[in-house]
Recover the amino acids of this structure.
C-alpha cells in the first residue's frame, strides 16, 4: 500500500479516487442496465457488495482508462470525469454522470502525508455509491439499447496520449440536473452529480 | 522288615530312655557338691531335669512315631505309585488304541468329505447344465415364438398381398373398361371430327372468299383515301400558289423598303457615333461646369475672406492708432505683444514665487504653531515647576521653622534636664522618654515627608493635566483658526460637496446592489452550466478513448444496417427472379441453407416414391387399356363404370351410340351378383330379358343373346 497508515499521500489519494471510479462506473453500468445483469459478478468493497463486470472487452477498456486517469490524478491535471449514456437508435445523449475533481496542488510540493483516516474516506465513498444506487428510483427508464462513453476534462495544455482523442462535451439537450454527495481525501475532492434528459410527460 | 524295624526302634528308644534316666542321677550326684544350697532347689532342679528328659523322650517317641508313619506312608506311596503306573500303562495303551481309532476315523471323515465335495461339484455342474439347458430352452422358445410371430406376420403379409392383388386386378378391370369406353368415345369423337372438318373446310372457303372481298374493299377504300388526300393537298397547293402570287407581287416594294432601311441603318450608325462623341463632350462640359461652379464658390469665399482680412487689417491699423503705441507695422505689434508677454511671464513668475513663499510661510507658520504650542506647554510646565518649587520652598521653610522650633524645644528640655541632673534613677526613664519622643518625632517626620511627597505628586499630576488641557485647547484653537481660514475660502463649497457626495454615495450603493444581483445571476448561470457540463475552452479540453463502447456500438449498428440492406436486396432480387421464372430458382439467388442429411434423404425418398407412383400409374393405365380392349374385342361389350356399382355395357354391334345396358351390383363387394336396370335399349329387349334373366337367370347367356341379336340385325341391314 502506498498510503502510509498514518496519513494520505498524493499517490495514495490518486489510487483511492481511481479505485472509487472503477467501482462507481461498474455500479452505474449495472444499475442503468447498459450491459445485461448476468455479465456482472459481486465483489465486496467498502464494506458493501458491489457489482463488477466480467466482460473481457469492457474490463480491458476500463483498466486502460482508469490507469491513465490515475496518472493524471497524480499530476493534478484532470478536472472532471463524465459518464455519457447515449441511445443507439437516435444517437441522443440521455444521461450524464459528472464527477468534478478538485485537486489541492500544494500536496505536490510538500510530500508530507495528510491526516485523514482511511475509514472516514471509505465511509464517505460508501455513502456516495449508495446514493448512486438510490438515484435509479427517479431517473427515467432507459428503454432503448444504450452505450456509454467516458469523457475526461483536462487542462488545455495536457499532451493527449496515443489512444485518446479530443471530443465534444456531449451535452444533453434539455436536461434536469441533480447534485449528489461528495467525498474528499484531503488532497482530492470529488463532487458528483447526474444530469438526465427531461422526459415530456405524455 | 517293618516289624523288625519297629522293634529296633522300640529297643533303641528304651535304651535311650534308660540312658536318660541314668544320666539325671549322675547329674544329680555330680551336681551335689557343686551347690551348697537347699534341698528344695535340688529337688526342683531335678524335677526340671526330669521333666526335660521326659519331654525329650516324648519328643523322641513322637519322632519315632512320625518316622514310622512316614515309612508307612512311603510304603503306601510306593504301592500307590506302582498301582498308578500300572493304571498309567493301561491307560496309555487305551490312549494309543483310541488314538489309532481317531486316526482311522479322521481318515474316514476326510474320505467322506472328499466324496461330499465331489458330489457337490457334480451337483453344481449339473445345476449349471440345467441352467444352460433351461436358457437354451428359453432361447429356443423365444426363437420359436419369433418364428411363429414372423410366420403370422408373413401370413398377414400374404393375406394383405392377396387383397392387394385382388384390388389391383379389380382396378385393372375397371381401367380396362374405362379404356374400352374411352376408345368408343374416341371413335365417336373422330367421326364428329370428320364432320366438323368438312364444315370447317366449307367455312374456310367462305372465309377465304370473304377475306378476298374484304381485301378488295379495303384496297378500294385505301385508294379512295389516297385520292382524297391528293385532293386536299392539291387544294392546299392551290391556296399556297395564290399566296405566293400575292407575295411575289409585293417583292419589288419590299426591295425598295430594304434599300431605304439600309440607308437609314447607315445613317443611324453615323448618328450613333456622333451621339457617342457628343455625349463625351457633354460629360466633359458638365465636369468643367462643376469645377467652374466650385471655383466660383471658392472665389466667393475668398472674396469674403479678403474683405474680412481687409477689415481686420484696418482694425489692426486702427489699433495702432487707438493705442498710440507708435504702431504702423505688424512688426511693432509683434514687438509690443512680445513685450507684453514678457511682462506677463515676469508677473507670473513673481506670482509663482509669491505663492511659493506664501506656502513656505504657511508651512513655517504651521510648523511654528505646534512649536508655539509646545513652547507654551513648556512655559506652563516651567510655571508649574516654578510653582512646585515655590511650594517646596514654602514647605522647606515651614520645616525649617518647625525644626527650629523643635530644636528650641529640645534645647529647652535639655537645659531643663541639665539643670535637674541630680537623680540617677530618673535618667533612664527620662532617657526612655527622650528616646520615645525622638522616635515619635522621627515617625512624625517620616509621615510628614510622605504626605509632602504625595502632595507633590498630586500637584505634579494636576500640573500635567493642566498642561494637556492647555495643549488641547491650543490645538483646538489652531484647528479653529484653520477651519476659519478654510471656511472663509469654501463656505459655499462645503454644502455643495456634501450634497454631491451624498448623491454619489446613493448612486454607488444602487449600482452596487445591481451589480450584486447581476453577480448572483451570473453565478447561478455558471453553476448551471457547470452542472450541465459546460467548460471554458481556454483552460480545459475534453478527451476520450478512441475505442470507446459508444463508438464501437455505433460501428456495429452501421455494419448491421448495411448487412440487412444487402440481405434485403438479395431477397428482393430472388423474389423478382422467382416471379419471373415461375417457381424455379437459379443458383445464385437461392438461400444458401446447407440442407441437412435427413432432408436430402427425405427428398430422395419422395422423388423415388413419386417416380414409383408415376410408373405404377403408367403401367396400370397400359394394362387397363390392354385389358379393356381385349374384353371389348373378345366379349363384344364395352363395360364402363358410370356411377359407383353401376356398369354400363355397350355392344360392338349397337345401332345407336346411346344403346347401352345398365347393371348394378347388388350385395356385398366381390360377390358378383348383378341386376339389370331399366334403360331405353333394355325395353326393346324385353323378350330376351324375360327368357334369359328371369327364367334362366344367366347374365352371360343374355348378353351373348343380345350380341347375336344385334349382329343379326346388322348383317341383315
Amino acid at each position: 500500500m502506498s498510503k502510509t497508515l498514518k496519513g494520505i499521500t498524493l499517490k495514495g489519494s490518486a489510487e483511492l479516487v481511481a479505485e472509487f471510479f472503477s467501482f462507481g462506473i461498474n455500479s452505474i453500468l449495472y444499475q442503468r442496465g447498459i450491459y445485461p445483469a448476468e455479465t456482472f459478478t459481486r465483489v465486496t468493497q467498502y464494506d458493501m457488495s458491489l457489482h463488477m463486470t466480467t466482460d473481457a472487452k469492457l474490463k480491458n477498456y476500463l483498466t486502460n482508462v482508469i490507469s491513465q486517469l490515475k496518472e493524471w490524478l497524480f499530476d493534478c491535471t484532470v478536472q472532471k470525469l463524465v459518464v455519457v449514456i447515449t441511445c443507439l437508435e437516435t444517437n441522443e445523449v440521455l444521461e450524464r454522470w459528472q464527477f468534478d475533481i478538485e485537486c489541492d496542488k500544494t500536496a505536490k510540493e510538500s510530500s508530507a502525508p495528510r491526516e485523514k483516516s482511511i475509514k472516514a474516506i471509505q465511509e464517505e465513498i460508501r455513502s456516495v455509491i449508495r446514493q448512486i444506487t438510490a438515484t435509479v428510483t427517479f431517473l427515467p427508464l432507459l428503454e432503448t439499447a444504450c452505450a456509454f462513453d467516458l469523457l475526461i476534462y483536462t487542462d488545455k495544455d495536457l499532451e493527449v496520449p496515443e489512444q485518446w482523442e479530443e471530443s465534444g462535451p456531449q451535452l444533453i439537450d434539455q436536461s434536469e440536473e441533480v447534485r449528489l454527495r461528495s467525498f474528499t481525501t484531503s488532497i482530492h475532492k470529488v463532487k458528483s452529480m447526474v444530469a438526465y434528459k427531461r422526459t415530456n410527460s405524455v | 522288615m517293618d516289624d523288625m524295624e519297629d522293634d529296633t526302634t522300640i529297643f533303641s528308644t528304651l535304651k535311650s530312655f534308660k540312658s536318660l534316666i541314668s544320666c539325671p542321677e549322675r547329674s544329680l550326684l555330680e551336681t551335689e557338691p557343686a551347690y551348697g544350697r537347699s534341698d528344695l532347689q535340688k529337688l526342683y532342679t531335678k524335677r526340671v531335669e526330669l521333666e526335660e528328659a521326659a519331654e525329650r523322650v516324648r519328643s523322641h517317641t513322637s519322632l519315632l512315631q512320625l518316622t514310622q508313619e512316614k515309612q508307612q506312608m512311603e510304603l503306601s506311596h510306593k504301592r500307590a505309585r506302582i498301582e498308578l503306573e500300572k493304571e498309567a500303562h493301561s491307560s496309555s495303551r487305551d490312549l494309543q488304541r483310541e488314538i489309532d481309532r481317531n486316526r482311522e476315523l479322521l481318515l474316514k471323515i476326510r474320505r467322506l468329505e472328499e466324496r461330499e465335495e465331489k458330489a457337490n461339484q457334480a451337483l453344481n455342474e449339473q445345476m449349471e447344465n440345467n441352467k444352460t439347458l433351461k436358457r437354451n430352452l428359453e432361447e429356443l422358445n423365444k426363437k420359436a415364438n419369433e418364428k411363429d410371430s414372423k410366420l403370422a406376420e408373413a401370413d398377414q403379409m400374404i393375406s394383405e398381398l392377396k387383397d392387394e392383388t385382388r384390388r389391383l386386378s379389380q382396378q385393372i378391370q375397371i381401367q380396362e373398361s374405362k379404356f374400352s369406353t374411352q376408345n368408343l368415345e374416341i371413335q365417336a369423337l373422330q367421326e364428329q371430327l370428320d364432320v366438323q372438318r368438312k364444315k370447317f373446310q366449307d367455312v374456310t372457303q367462305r372465309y377465304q372468299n370473304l377475306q378476298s372481298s374484304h381485301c378488295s374493299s379495303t384496297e378500294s377504300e385505301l385508294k379512295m383515301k389516297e385520292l382524297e388526300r391528293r385532293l386536299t393537298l392539291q387544294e392546299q397547293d392551290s391556296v399556297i400558289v395564290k399566296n405566293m402570287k400575292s407575295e411575289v407581287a409585293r417583292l419589288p416594294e419590299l426591295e425598295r423598303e430594304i434599300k431605304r432601311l439600309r440607308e437609314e441603318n447607315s445613317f443611324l450608325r453615323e448618328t450613333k457615333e456622333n451621339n457617342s462623341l457628343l455625349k463625351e463632350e457633354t460629360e466633359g462640359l458638365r465636369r468643367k461646369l462643376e469645377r467652374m461652379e466650385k471655383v466660383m464658390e471658392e472665389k466667393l469665399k475668398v472674396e469674403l475672406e479678403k474683405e474680412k482680412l481687409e477689415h481686420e487689417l484696418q482694425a489692426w491699423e486702427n489699433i495702432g492708432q487707438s493705442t498710440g503705441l507708435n504702431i504702423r507695422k505688424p512688426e511693432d505689434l509683434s514687438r509690443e505683444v512680445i513685450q507684453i508677454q514678457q511682462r506677463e511671464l515676469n508677473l507670473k513668475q513673481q506670482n509663482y514665487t509669491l505663492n511659493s513663499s506664501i506656502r513656505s510661510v504657511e508651512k513655517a507658520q504651521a510648523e511654528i504653531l505646534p512649536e508655539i504650542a509646545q513652547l507654551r506647554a513648556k512655559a506652563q510646565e516651567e510655571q508649574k515647576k516654578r510653582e512646585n518649587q515655590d511650594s517646596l520652598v514654602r514647605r522647606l521653610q515651614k520645616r525649617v521653622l518647625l525644626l527650629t522650633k523643635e530644636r528650641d524645644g529640645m534645647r529647652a528640655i535639655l537645659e531643663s534636664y541639665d539643670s535637674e541632673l541630680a537623680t540617677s534613677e530618673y535618667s533612664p526613664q527620662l532617657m526612655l522618654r527622650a528616646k520615645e519622643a525622638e522616635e515619635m518625632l522621627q515617625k512624625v517626620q517620616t509621615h510628614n515627608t510622605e504626605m509632602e511627597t504625595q502632595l507633590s505628586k498630586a500637584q505634579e499630576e494636576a500640573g500635567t493635566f493642566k498642561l494637556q488641557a492647555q495643549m488641547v485647547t491650543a490645538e483646538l484653537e489652531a484647528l479653529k483658526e484653520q477651519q476659519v481660514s478654510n471656511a472663509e475660502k469654501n463656505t459655499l463649497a462645503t454644502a455643495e460637496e456634501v450634497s454631491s457626495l451624498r448623491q454619489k454615495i446613493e448612486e454607488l450603493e444602487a449600482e452596487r446592489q445591481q451589480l450584486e444581483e447581476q453577480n448572483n445571476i451570473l453565478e447561478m448561470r455558471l453553476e448551471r452550466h457547470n452542472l450541465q457540463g459546460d467548460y471554458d475552452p481556454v483552460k480545459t479540453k475534453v478527451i476520450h478513448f478512441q475505442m470507446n463502447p459508444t463508438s464501437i456500438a455505433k460501428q456495429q449498428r452501421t455494419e448491421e444496417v448495411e448487412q440487412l440492406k444487402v440481405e434485403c436486396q438479395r431477397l428482393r432480387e430472388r423474389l423478382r427472379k422467382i416471379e419471373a421464372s415461375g417457381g424455379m430458382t437459379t443458383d445464385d439467388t437461392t438461400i444458401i441453407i446447407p440442407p441437412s442429411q435427413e432432408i436430402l434423404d427425405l427428398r430422395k425418398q419422395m422423388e423415388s416414391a413419386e417416380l414409383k407412383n408415376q410408373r405404377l400409374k403408367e403401367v396400370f393405365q397400359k394394362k387397363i387399356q390392354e385389358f379393356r380392349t381385349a374384353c371389348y374385342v373378345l366379349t363384344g361389350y364395352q363395360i364402363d363404370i358410370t356411377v359407383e356399382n353401376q356398369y354400363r355395357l355397350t355392344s360392338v354391334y349397337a345401332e345407336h351410340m346411346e344403346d347401352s345396358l345398365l347393371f348394378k351390383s347388388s350385395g356385398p363387394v366381390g360377390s358378383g351378383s348383378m341386376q339389370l336396370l331399366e334403360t331405353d335399349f333394355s325395353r326393346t329387349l324385353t323378350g330376351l330379358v324375360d327368357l334369359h334373366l328371369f327364367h334362366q337367370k344367366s347374365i352371360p347367356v343374355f348378353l351373348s343373346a343380345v350380341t347375336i341379336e344385334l349382329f343379326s340385325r346388322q348383317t341383315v341391314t
Q: What stands out?
A: Chain B is about 85% helix and 5% strand. The longest strand of chain B covers residues 540-545. Chain B touches chain A through 26 residues (CB under 8 Å).
